[in-house]
Specification:
Blueprint: H1 14-21, E1 38-43, E2 46-51, H2 54-63, E3 68-69, H3 72-82, H4 91-101, H5 107-111, H6 114-129, E4 135-136, H7 137-154, H8 162-176, H9 181-185, H10 193-217, H11 227-233, H12 245-275, H13 278-289, H14 297-300, H15 302-314, E5 321-325, E6 329-331, E7 334-336, E8 341-344, H16 346-349, H17 392-409, E9 410-414, E10 435-440
Parallel strand pairs: 2-8
Antiparallel strand pairs: 1-2, 3-5, 4-10, 5-8, 6-7, 9-10
Helix pairs in contact: 6-7, 6-17, 7-12, 8-10, 10-12, 12-15, 12-17, 13-17
Bound molecules: protoporphyrin IX containing FE.
Length: 443
């Protein structure tokens, strides 16, 4: 059974709750949250409800999605890095951005990116082959995911800018991306001391992104070749307006950030699980070696796909989705007043005692063809409804291809005994980057 930290016995008092959100977001849910469909509490005078009832989840994300918007705390934490990009925009601006970006993320469009994903993975594998002793696999996976995001979406290799970009992402996660008491207390228009530091960070962050875009821009002419070209050419169907340069940059920031950290985490958790399940790892390697290399990826590599699906169940990188209800509603028989914070937590849903058999066990067979059907709204690694992850197909393709290549080349084992525990803040990070021991197969 992959280890997890024990949940608290009851709801945390306010100050501990806020400290825990800033250091280990899954530690706020008491044991009872894994056993009941709905949990209510009040926080700083505001009602807050956590829903793990699939029907209520459907109501929030799909049926009555217009009633539920991003919360002030999410915007406060994310705007300094994402600006006004797709993830945190709302209303007409969001609709325009989503319509413009959608064609680049269809299954067909993503299929055409597979050769780039494979080429970047092969470079990462060659680098790993040259490593001696214990390996910081997470670091390699983060660089790989960033390289893939840069190459596939914006035609830029990350050799020059990757390290600087990663350093900024890590600095933000460590220092400014963790909410403090005043971030909860002050309304959005009132800057907290951390907001001032965040604004300063934003200036360095946008300068780095502008540098990447400028590098890529030099010497380019002719037909649209990648996502940034498409965005540059896009016009609002109603006003004919093009994206301004800073709006373009916010989309680049959003797609790079939302896309690479989550996929790197999926690969890390998959490798950690496989290191503890040698028989499944052998079967995966066998599947990779027999891969014909052509045709529908998910049909070619069903076990690898099932391992990725099960990894996303046990360790959903986007472990929580928060919404603010604009008007009154009813969820699972509970009255919801306007202004209620509604939490849907894939972490809880995916390990819920009422929804899964052996919820904490690593069992990819749940996702193999022919297995018992999984209720749609009990499994939400990519969310659902109008704001479902635009990059889901891209992420699955990347994770399945990269994992398959990795296990075909190496036997993966953890180098030490220290358990790898989730300790999430914005995404489901591990509490440390575990050292791996890689043995070449057939080499
Ligand atoms: C395993 C990898 C990934 C996971 C687990 C994941 C998860 C999610 C989830 C749960 C949401 C919905 C959030 C909400 O409703 O509050 C979301 C939205 C989003 N994701 Fe992903 N994502 C992944 C990869 C990607 C990739 C590769 C990209 C881009 C290439 C991407 C771009 C986005 C964007 C732009 C949104 C906002 C969509 C909108 O609001 O319209 N994600 N993601």
């Amino acid at each position: 059974m992959p280890p997890v930290p024990a949940p608290p016995e009851r709801d945390l008092p306010l100050m501990r709750f806020i400290a825990t959100v800033g250091t280990n977001g899954i530690g706020i849910w008491p044991r009872q949250a894994y056993e009941t469909p709905v949990q209510r509490r009040t926080l700083l005078g505001r009602p807050r409800i956590t829903v793990s009832d699939p029907e209520a989840v459907r109501r929030v994300l799909v049926e009555n999605a217009e009633n539920y918007v991003r919360t002030a705390i999410s915007i406060r934490m994310l705007r300094p890095v994402l600006g006004d990009g797709l993830l945190i925009s709302e209303g007409a601006a969001w609709r325009h951005q989503r319509r413009t970006l959608a064609p680049a993320f269809t299954p067909r469009a993503v299929e055409m990116l597979a050769p780039h994903i494979l080429a970047a993975t092969d470079v990462a594998i060659r680098t790993l082959e040259g490593e001696q002793g214990d390996v910081d696999l997470f670091g390699h996976l983060q660089r790989l995911a960033l390289e893939i995001a840069g190459r596939t979406m914006f035609s830029v290799g990350m050799t020059r800018h990757g390290a600087g970009l990663r350093a900024l992402v890590e600095e933000y996660q460590r220092r400014l991306g963790r909410p403090q008491l005043l971030d909860f207390l002050l309304p959005l228009g009132w800057p907290s001391p951390h907001d001032i530091a965040r604004a300063r960070f934003r200036r360095r962050w946008t300068a780095t992104l502008d540098g990447i875009i400028a590098d890529r821009g030099s010497g380019r002419t002719g037909a649209a070749q990648d996502l940034l070209d498409l965005l540059g050419e896009a016009r609002d169907p109603e006003t004919g307006r093009a994206f301004a340069p800073e709006e373009l940059r916010d989309q680049v920031a959003t797609l790079i950030l939302a896309g690479h950290e989550t996929t790197a985490l999926t690969l890390l958790w998959a490798c950690t699980l496989l290191a503890q399940a040698p028989a499944i790892q052998e079967a995966l390697s066998e599947e990779a070696l027999n891969d014909p290399g052509m045709g529908d990826l998910m049909k070619r590599l069903p076990l690898t796909r099932a391992v990725v699906d099960e990894t996303l169940r046990l360790y959903p990188p986007a472990f929580v989705m928060a919404r603010l209800s604009r008007g009154a509603d009813t969820l699972a028989g509970h009255d919801i007043a306007a202004g209620t914070i509604v939490i849907i937590a894939p972490w809880l849903l995916h390990r819920h005692r009422l929804l899964w058999r052996a919820p904490d066990a690593f069992d990819p067979s749940r996702f193999l063809p022919g297995a018992e059907a999984i209720p749609r709204f009990a499994y939400l690694p990519f969310g659902a409804g109008p704001r479902v992850c635009i990059g889901a197909q891209f992420a699955l393709t990347e994770a399945v291809l990269a994992l398959s290549r990795l296990v075909a080349r190496f036997r993966l084992a953890l180098a030490g005994d220290r358990p790898v525990l989730p300790a999430p803040v914005v995404t489901l990070q591990p509490d440390h980057a575990p050292a791996f021991r890689l043995t070449l197969r057939g080499g």
